[in-house]
Design goal:
8-stranded mixed β-sheet; single chain; alpha/beta; 22 strands; binds S-adenosyl-L-homocysteine
């Protein structure tokens, strides 16, 4: 097989990246935008020792697993993996990926519960759009194409609320009409870097922030007026975020509010939540509520001191606070900790303490303070937990139950293996499709010390 060959191939599997794969001449051939059961004419783009990469020239026989592609930016913007596949098939793929990772990487075999999913469209409550100029001087606002920093204009994204694309349009017109300079990643010069929008699912409040490489956004008042006219009462906050560093990190540390509040308010699991631009907040509100409910079911917080590590704006802990004896939340981002404290006060929750620190350092400190939580929940970023933190949890705190919430089932599997080596058994696993159409998924695992009657694990 060589570059530019045309081959007929049957697709026999789909990767989590969304690419189909078939076999030809002893090579695995990856063909993006195909699904198991497709027979396609594939145009070979690159051949390596064991694998080849191709693109579809023609679909000869479509699989019955094929879905309707309902987004014009699919495969251009680098955001989604699965529009070409029926949603039910995507869910099976995600379920299998989590099961395989836990079994193969972690060597653990919890009881796997069926995947939980809601609607696969318009679910995102936050978006950060890079802004760039192309060679012709056109302003592009959209997303990076896959594996690159090339901005693809994306006037409509099927994952977001409809207001977001309207804000993008108004913002683009503002930039054009007023000749505002656009940041270039290559030179580090120019002003406008990103447009950031957040919408609270329950209250409908919308925050718009513009990330700039400078101290002032010229004529910001004109933009604010246009956004007021567009969004009416739901427009609750306009901020500029200052980021003058030559970095891939989107947000700088300083926000200046030019209209409305410094935050928006949402309601999650019955708790009013203040969210600032720098605070983490689950992007899919309705699935997050179901995930938190499952975490509570596994954790059985009644009468317990619960340690909520990697707590963001305190949302999980606060949702458990009424049942628990007390909650200790730990989070590294100061603004998120401020939000967590504010949220506790605002909801008249008095049994919560929030610590701004690295999770492992906070665990060390709590150990020195002689605190022994009855239950621990961890919700780390993709890289998972440090082994030394797992060691403190298992050997010093030694709670009956640990609940692990993860956005990366590979590092989750690695960490479950460590937990099992320290006497905790992965009993149950529930997967939540928090990010439909993308390759990402959230997983919750119940780890328990010794024999626990899992029937007792009720909310
Ligand atoms: N549990 C929260 C947030 C989960 S996201 C929720 O459901 O909303 C993971 C959080 O971990 C982020 O808020 C991030 O800022 C925080 N984080 C990342 N590294 C950390 C560390 N080393 N120590 C403590 N928190 C950390």
């Amino acid at each position: 097989m060589k570059k530019n060959d045309l081959i007929e191939i049957e697709i026999t599997d789909v990767m989590l990246s969304g690419s189909g794969v078939g076999h030809y001449d002893g090579l695995a051939v990856f063909v993006p935008s195909t699904v198991t059961g497709d027979v396609v004419l594939a145009h070979i783009l690159k051949v390596k020792t064991n694998v080849a990469y191709a693109k579809i020239e023609k679909i000869i026989k479509p699989s019955d697993k094929r879905g309707k592609i309902e987004c014009n930016s699919f495969l251009k913007c680098g955001g989604c993996a699965f529009w070409h596949i029926k949603y039910s098939e995507e869910l099976k793929l995600k379920e299998n990926a989590v099961t395989n990772n836990l079994k193969r990487i972690g060597g653990v075999e919890p009881e796997f519960e069926p995947i939980t999913a809601l609607q696969p469209q318009n679910y995102r409550n936050k978006c950060q759009y890079p802004v760039a100029k192309n060679k012709d001087g056109d302003i592009l606002i959209g997303f990076y194409s896959e594996h690159s920093h090339r901005v693809v204009d994306c006037p409509q994204c099927a994952l977001q609320p409809e207001e977001f694309s309207k804000v993008v349009k108004v913002f683009k017109e503002f930039l054009k009409e007023n000749n505002i300079s656009i940041y270039s990643e290559e030179t580090g010069k120019g002003l406008v870097r990103h447009l950031y929008i957040r919408k609270a699912a329950v209250t409908g409040e919308i925050m718009v922030a513009v990330v700039i490489n400078g101290d002032k956004l010229p004529l910001a008042e004109k933009l604010i007026e246009s956004l007021k006219a567009l969004l009416k009462d739901s427009f609750c906050s306009f901020q500029i975020n200052i980021n003058k560093k030559k970095t891939n990190v989107i947000l700088g540390h300083k926000n200046i509010t030019l209209y409305g509040n410094d935050y928006i308010i949402d309601v999650l699991c019955g708790v009013e939540i203040r969210i600032s631009p720098l605070s983490f907040y689950q992007v899919n509100h309705d699935v997050a509520e179901l995930l938190y409910k499952k975490a509570a079911e596994y954790l059985k917080p009644q009468g317990k001191t619960v340690l909520d590590l990697y707590c963001g704006a305190g949302t999980i802990g606060l949702s458990l606070a009424k049942k628990a004896k007390s909650i200790i939340g730990v989070e590294i981002i100061p603004e998120a900790v401020e939000d967590a404290k504010f949220n506790a006060k605002q909801n008249d929750i008095q049994n919560c303490e929030f610590i701004c620190a690295d999770a492992k350092n906070a665990a060390e400190m709590l150990k020195i303070r002689g605190i022994k939580p009855d239950a621990v929940i961890v919700d780390p970023p993709r890289k998972g937990c440090e082994e030394s933190l797992i060691d403190i949890i298992c050997n010093d705190f030694a709670p009956e139950i640990v609940v692990y919430v993860s956005c990366d089932s590979a590092t989750l599997a690695r960490d479950c293996k460590i937990f099992e080596s320290m006497g905790y058994k992965a009993e149950k696993c529930a997967t939540f499709d928090m990010f439909p159409r993308t390759s990402h998924v959230e997983t919750v695992v119940l780890l328990s010390k010794g024999e626990v009657d899992s029937k007792k694990a009720s909310c």
